Amino acid sequence: MTETALSVIRRLFVDRYDDLKKKLTKRLGSADLAGDAMQDAWLRLARVDSIGVVQSPGSYLFRIALNAAADQRRLERRHMSAVEIDSVLELPDDAPTAEEVAIARSDFEAFRTIMAELPARRRVIFLAARLGNVPRQEIADRLGVSRRLVAKELLLAHEHCIVRYRALMQGPTKGSESE
Predict the structure, then answer these.
(1) What is the pTM for the complete model shown?
(2) Which residue ranges make up each domain of the chain?
(3) Is the CATH number of domain 96-174 1.10.10.10?
């Protein structure tokens, strides 16, 4: 069975994450913007079901990340103008609404549930790489495993998170309502 173009691109994204982020940081001039763009790029790859033929996967991934960064910059420009409007109008407290708090709590509980389902090593690798921003080689050294295994565990963790998050957000199915 051959891999689909999308799975090849996703695997390449995970395998070359550090190199792609360095290149993007150099291009954008900001490690924070590059990190945010990389996360948005991954989310974009997670949302699609298939892609066509890709002649240059590395360039394709870089373009996705650059587009994500451009979208973030556009959004920030719009947000800045909204903030300026708010200050002129002297709008009151920006505290989250009860609905926003409930959604955030629900998302957090979904995250905790999904993380608890991961095998211990995979969870450690995922949290170190994504929340701790620890380079893969350092994770591999800490755990006494290869960088390739770290990349594989990250890919499996991402795939699990995507599948489980979608399932949790869809809610109970008709068969489970009667239980």
Answers:
(1) 0.45
(2) 1-94, 96-174
(3) yes
